[in-house]
Amino acid sequence: MPPIARKRTFCTAITQSLYDGMNAVQELNGAAPPSQTANLLTGLRIDEYFTRTDTATSTFLADALGSTIGLVTSNNGPIATNYTYQPFGATTAGGSANGNSYEFTGRENDGTGSYFYRARYYPRPSRDSLRKTRWISTAAMLTSTTWWETPRLTS
């Protein structure tokens, strides 16, 4: 399978990614023609990142969800950048700044609080939007005839 490219905009900067299967392996700037800004060493699983090399090589430290909890920039060195997460992915980064965008569950944060989950963006929900959300069971969804009707349960 040949590598594919995808463009995305982080705030005002356009960044392109070169993919090998499901994982990004190279980041390119938005110039014409684009030039390389970072290389990523990935694993066999989706969103499994080991290192990111731009001006220096950073090693990813991840938790059980695949969320980046730290970046180490030197061999056996201290954590240069650490990440903490609130529920639903609200991210706080501490330490030295870097160009890493792979954060909560290994997904790309576009800088506005939205994460790219393959086919679409998911904004981090607020408490107000969670209160207004109407939760519908899978059984109710399957018994309705069209998606815009009010789901109803049948016996």
Notes on the protein architecture:
The protein is mainly beta. It has one domain (4-126). The chain is 8% helix and 43% strand. It has helices at 127-132, 138-143; strands at 4-10, 13-20, 23-29, 36-42, 49-53, 57-62, 68-72, 79-85, 91-95, 108-109, 114-117, 120-123. The strands form 2 sheets. Strands 1-2-3-4-5-6-7-8-9 form a 9-stranded antiparallel beta sheet, with no helix packed on it. Strand 5 and strand 6 form a beta hairpin. The model is unreliable at 130-151 (pLDDT under 50).
Please give the order of strands in the largest beta sheet.
1-2-3-4-5-6-7-8-9
Secondary structure tally: strands: 12
Q: Whole-Å distance between the termini?
A: 48 Å
* % residues in beta strands: 35-45%
Shape: globular
Ranges where pLDDT stays below 50 over 5 or more residues in a row are 130-151
Radius of gyration: 19 Å
Helix fraction bin: under 10%
What attributes does this structure have?
three-stranded antiparallel β-sheet; globular; nine-stranded antiparallel β-sheet; 43% strand; 2 helices
Topology:
Blueprint: E1 4-10, E2 13-20, E3 23-29, E4 36-42, E5 49-53, E6 57-62, E7 68-72, E8 79-85, E9 91-95, E10 108-109, E11 114-117, E12 120-123, H1 127-132, H2 138-143
Antiparallel strand pairs: 1-2, 2-3, 3-4, 4-5, 5-6, 6-7, 7-8, 8-9, 10-11, 11-12
Summarize the structure.
With 155 residues, this protein is mostly beta strands.
